[in-house]
Amino acid sequence: MESIKKKFSRMLDIPQESVLNVPYITVTGREQLSIENFGGILEYLPDNIKLKTSIGIIEIKGNKMNIKSMSDKSMTINGTILCVEFSE
Amino acid sequence: MFVWNYLKGYVIIKAVGFYAQRFMNLAAYRGIKIWDVKNEDMVFTVTFSYGDLKKIEKCALDAGCRIKVIKEAGVPVVLKRYRKRTSFIAGAAFFVLFICFLSMFIWSIRVEGNLKIPTEKILSYVNESGLRPGTLKSTPDLGAISNRLILDFDDVAWATIRLDGTKAVVSISEGTKSNIKPQDEQACDIVAKRDGVIESITVISGTAQVRSGDVVQKGQVLVKGAVMIANDDGTFTEKPVVPKAFIRATTVYHMKETVPIKINEKKRTGEKRTWIAFKVADNDFAFGMPLNFKSFETQKNKIFEFDIGDWVFPFEVYKQDFYEVNNVQKKATKEELLKKAENMLDSWTEENLDFDSYVVKCEKNSNINDRGLIMDVVLTVSERIDTNQR
After folding, report:
1. Owning domain of residue B160
2. Is residue B74 part of a domain?
3. What is the ipTM metric for this complex?
4. CATH code: domain of residue A30
């Protein structure tokens, strides 16, 4: 089913985040990161935030990070962003 | 965003416990928006809307996490705090309604654009027409008043009245009388209205009969209301036209006035009465000892007046002093006579000369005798002397 959706979205050029519920990450400079379609917080430390998503775990490393806003679908993180890592 | 959050009200809590992240996930899952989340040594500070407090408490209970409210702020919190103080809320509501009520009225009138016409004259005119402080904004017909202003004042070329909050602004544009008169579209001649020496002549239509430097007499034709048109056969035909021209000339005015030496002066006897008065809108209420003076002078001293910027509250308290006076005749000094003569000359110039005229030279001779000061003035004036002959 997932593969059909993927093919369908590729064929019609539809953004995958709206069809497949994959995370959509926007980084503004090094100070702000927004993520849509995330499942929940696994760990929140000022220098490390782990988020559960449909494609696995996303780990954001940085300094003095805080959550600017959070709802069931999106989150905005403020602070110094150093790297974003993906893992299964 | 802060303003919106303040209007909705917000709560800041501290969440402690092993499952603090779970608590936040649960809150987000249940549709609660949280913001400004900080982790300080595993103590989480979380902010959310005031209306979600109950849901947050439930989330914390379900997640097994302890929370403590550290701040509640915003409009709902203030209202909750003061809900039992009914008189305070009633007072606040009354204040808001009172301000709304007051904003339905015109409280001040400003006149702008007038150079020649005194502001007081325009204010008293609009007051008589129904536009006065304290009237409802919807009552006066501003368009009709501004139209009447144009018609009744010769010097007003254009006028409009607009409302700026509780202030009525009367904007006027002044013009000379000749500018606002309807154009005489009948063919006629332009003649001199005074004797003089032509300074300049600009003819727009018609045929000039004089040149700069010519000496002209009152009634002399300056511009003929006709032009000569050449025919095909070499003859000329005179065609009547409406003449238009600007002709300035140097004219001379002779004025002889006597300023009487005896002047009436009011001298205070030393008797005085003081009244306290209240003024509400246009009504005065005064209290004090009855007056038995034949003749008196008054002096008004404001004690209290409430204003906010340009807006003056229509209530004031003032003290009115009445001084008994006797009328005595006295002989004016030379300085007083000269000053009075100067004032007379100024008012004569203002009354008799047009707006675009100016005095080139003023020769004054004055003699003081037993009767007073005899002032002999010769004014050399530069002015327009063209006028249409009917």
Report:
1. 108-178
2. yes
3. 0.83
4. 2.60.40.2000
